[in-house]
Each structure stands twice: as structure tokens, then as C-alpha cells.
Design a protein that fits this description.
With 318 residues, this protein is α/β, with parallel strands linked by helices. The chain is built from 13 helices and eight strands. Helix 6 packs antiparallel against helix 13, helix 7 packs parallel to helix 8 and helix 9 packs parallel to helix 10. It is elongated. Bound molecules: guanosine-5'-diphosphate. Guanosine-5'-diphosphate (GDP) binds next to helix 7.
């Protein structure tokens, strides 16, 4: 839990976390679990042909090679020991393995270091949904009773500043912005000064999202981290990487580029609604070893859910 909840409604409380995840993951369920069920019941028993087909199905559902290998190793071992005899046995083992992958990296006591002002940086490639996600995060925290300030430090794109201005208004957050082209660290410096002066609880920083292969972008993010740390002890307290689920393995490669440089503490996977590629989330967790903190399930302000491995897996399998 990142913040103590106030009596105000979070999106989970309003719609029911499970129901909302289930709705968003409908296409992924169809692509992953319905196909698994079809393969498992395609022949009278679980045999080598069924297991081979199952492997192909997992790979085809964006789970990636490593996740597929892990699941298939577990299934084959249990099958040899005759512990898996029916489609339901196999399905239960797949569910168990997938849940373990999502849970492995979660620190149940994850709480942010004590600081009067929490500073969160949001990084990611343009188009992944960074700006929208910042708006949703700001709205969510405002609903929890926090005073939120958004810092428009993607000074590279004038449109990003304009877009963030709209999101800040919608979410009831304060905004610090500059003219396009200004050094992002200077805007950040101003934002953190304003946050201290105005008794703000949380600062959310938008950053530029030119491709990770541009090393000057990474240097820029690194400089911002140092500026934040000098202004507020321990800042940034979270560096959240936004990944677009619809980009599949490509998104994963981009994420690996960011990870090398930016000290990511958590992931936000967006656009899980309406894609059949949600299985990528398992691959992301396995490959990056960083917990998913939130998922994006639509374009509206309330379409950001706090991530729960159990709810995610149950939404697919129940
Ligand atoms: P940025 O360039 O990374 O800042 O991306 P934007 O925030 O501008 O988002 C790019 C597009 O993705 C916009 O059309 C958003 O409405 C859309 N988007 C962002 N998050 C989600 C999500 O969770 N679901 C869906 N369906 N669309 C999203």
C-alpha cells in the first residue's frame, strides 16, 4: 500500500477491483486461458501432443520464452510424477506458476521512506501513456486527500506541457511548468521549491520520452534524480516506468533500455483494456524483476488500478 487510504473513494472501491480487472482483461483471457482450455481438452488425456500444443499456445499468447519454459518445466515434472492427470490439474499448475511469477518481486511491506514530500518520477517512451497515467495518478492521490503537484519536466514536447495542464486541471492537482526548451532540471527545481512552500504531499514529475537509445535522455533523467535528491532527502522516492502492453515484446526491450540507466522502482503497464496481449505482463515481471504497481485499463481518469497479482491471475482464470 503506497498511501494510507482515506474515506474517499479510490477506483477499486468504486467499481470493485476484481470486476474492473476482469472486464479489462477479457480479450487476454480469450487469447490465453480459453486457448489453454481448448488445448488441454483436445484429447482424452494429457499426453506429449497436448503438452507440445500447450507450449505453442503459451508462446502465442505473449508469455515469452522464459515464462513458457518455466511453466512447461513445472507441468512436465508434475505430469511425469502423475500428479497432473486432468485438464483441471494442468490449469491449476499454470495458474500457480503464473501467480508465483507476479508475486516474486512484490515486497508486501513496500512503503515509501518517511518524507514530508513524496517525489515520484514517471519515465517511459512517448506514446506509452505517460501523461495520461500521471493525470490518473494525480486524480487518485487527490481522491485520497493528498495535495498533489505535477511537474511538467518534459520540456522537449510543447504538446506534452499542454496535455499535462489539462490533466492537472481535471485531477485537481497543482502544476509547475515552463516554456518549451527549458532545462528540465530547472523546472524540477522550481517545482520542488513550490512543493516545500505550499505544503504539498506528493510531487509527480513528467519526463521526456525520446527513445531510450538516446543516451542524453538518460543523462537528463539522471541529472533530475540528483537535483531531486539534493532538494528533498531520499527523492525521488519512486521512479515508475510506463510500459504499453499493446507493444508486446518491443515494449519489454524498451523497458530494458530504461532500466540500465534510471533506477526504476516500479512499473505501470498501460492499455491492458482491449488488447489480447496482456500475457506480456508475466514476461515483463519475469524479465525485469521489478514489481508492477499499477495498470492502465482505459483512457479516463479513473482507469488506473493498483496492481494485485491475485486479482490479475483470478481475472484471467476464474
Ligand atoms: P505519452 O506520449 O506517453 O505521454 O502518452 P499519452 O498519455 O499521450 O497517451 C497516448 C495515448 O494512449 C492516448 O490516446 C491515451 O488516451 C492512450 N492511453 C493511455 N493510457 C491508456 C490505457 O490504459 N488504456 C487505453 N485504452 N488507452 C490509454
Amino acid at each position: 500500500m503506497l498511501f494510507n487510504r482515506s474515506s474517499k473513494d479510490t477506483p477499486e472501491k468504486k467499481g470493485g477491483l476484481f470486476e474492473r480487472m476482469k472486464k479489462a482483461l477479457g480479450a487476454t483471457k480469450e487469447n490465453l486461458v480459453s486457448k489453454i482450455e481448448a488445448v488441454l481438452s483436445s484429447r482424452p488425456g494429457i499426453d506429449e501432443k497436448v503438452l507440445d500444443d500447450l507450449e505453442g499456445t503459451l508462446l502465442g499468447a505473449d508469455l515469452g520464452v522464459r515464462v513458457t519454459e518455466r511453466v512447461m518445466d513445472a507441468i512436465r515434472t508434475q505430469h511425469k510424477k502423475q500428479l497432473i492427470r486432468t485438464p483441471d490439474d494442468a490449469k491449476a499448475e499454470i495458474r500457480k506458476q503464473l501467480l508465483a511469477i507476479l508475486s516474486a518481486r512484490l515486497d508486501p511491506d513496500h512503503s515509501l521512506p518517511d518524507s514530508p514530500i513524496q517525489v515520484w518520477m514517471v519515465v517511459g517512451v512517448n506514446g506509452t501513456g505517460k501523461t495520461t497515467t500521471i493525470g490518473k495518478l494525480a486524480a487518485r492521490m487527490s481522491a485520497e486527500g493528498k495535495h498533489v503537484l505535477v511537474c511538467a519536466a518534459d520540456t522537449f514536447r510543447p504538446a506534452a506541457i499542454e496535455q499535462l495542464t489539462v490533466w492537472a486541471e481535471r485531477s485537481g492537482a497543482q502544476l509547475i511548468k515552463s516554456k518549451p526548451g527549458v532545462d528540465p532540471s530547472a523546472v524540477l527545481h522550481d517545482a520542488l521549491s513550490a512543493a516545500s512552500a505550499r505544503a504539498v504531499d506528493v510531487v509527480i514529475i513528467d519526463t521526456a520520452g525520446r527513445l531510450h537509445t538516446k543516451s542524453n535522455l538518460m543523462q537528463e533523467v539522471d541529472k533530475m534524480r540528483r537535483v531531486a535528491g539534493r532538494k528533498i532527502p531520499g527523492a525521488p522516492h519512486e521512479v515508475l516506468l510506463v510500459i504499453d502492453a499493446t507493444t508486446g515484446q518491443n515494449g519489454l526491450t524498451q523497458a530494458q533500455g530504461f532500466m540500465k540507466f534510471t533506477g526504476i522502482t516500479g512499473l505501470i503497464v498501460t492499455k491492458l483494456d482491449g488488447t489480447a496481449k496482456g500475457g506480456i505482463l508475466f514476461s515483463i515481471c519475469q524479465e525485469l524483476g521489478i514489481p508492477v504497481r499499477f495498470i492502465g485499463v482505459g483512457e479516463s481518469l479513473e482507469d488506473l488500478l493498483e496492481f494485485s497479482p491475485e486479482a490479475f491471475v483470478d481475472s484471467l482464470f476464474v
